[in-house]
Design brief:
single chain, 2 helices, mainly beta, Carboxypeptidase regulatory-like domain-containing protein, 162 residues, Immunoglobulin-like, 13% helix, DUF6795
Length: 162
């Protein structure tokens, strides 16, 4: 009845994991997502850091007719966590996305997800001024940092008000 479309739920992730700037090898990580209104449970996949603390996850595309249903809204909760060991369930990344396509501001961060377990997790606001229905603000909860991108967000907050 409703045509199926591809929903880009999680872009490719490339990152590194450290503690006090020392790379952490052999740490199991898990990435999860839950498509609101479509999935009852979170879908998880796993990876392990290499000898230099580097890791990656492939892009995830979900084929569904949900966006074509009346009043449907596309929201996907995303999370990346430590899967086991002393830091189990420490969030490297957590946010909720909107829309059927990847959000460039989030893709940019997930392509350089450099995380240090010595950092305290903080909530960062990312302003998407290119969203089709107007300016959207995303909250990203993370122990990772992007100094250059954070400077850009401060400028956008001045432009669009806090």
């Amino acid at each position: 009845m409703f045509k199926k479309v591809d929903v880009e739920v999680f872009p490719e992730v490339v990152g590194s994991l450290a503690h006090d700037s020392k790379p952490l090898a052999g740490i199991k990580l898990k990435r999860g997502y839950k498509y609101s209104g479509v999935m009852e449970d979170i879908e998880w996949d796993y990876t392990t850091t290499d000898d230099e603390g580097k890791f990656s996850f492939p892009e995830i595309i979900y084929r569904t007719n949900h966006p074509n249903k009346p009043f449907a809204e596309t929201r996907v909760a995303q999370a990346i966590k430590v899967a086991e060991g002393d830091y189990t369930d420490t969030f490297l990344w957590s946010t909720v996305t909107r829309g059927e396509k990847h959000i460039s501001y989030l893709v940019e961060r997930l392509a350089q997800l450099d995380c240090d377990l010595a950092n305290e997790a903080i909530s960062q606001e990312i302003i998407d001024e290119e969203f089709p229905s107007g300016v959207v603000r995303y909250q990203v909860f993370s122990i990772c940092s992007w100094p250059e991108l954070e400077k850009l967000e401060i400028e956008k907050q001045k432009k669009f008000g806090e």
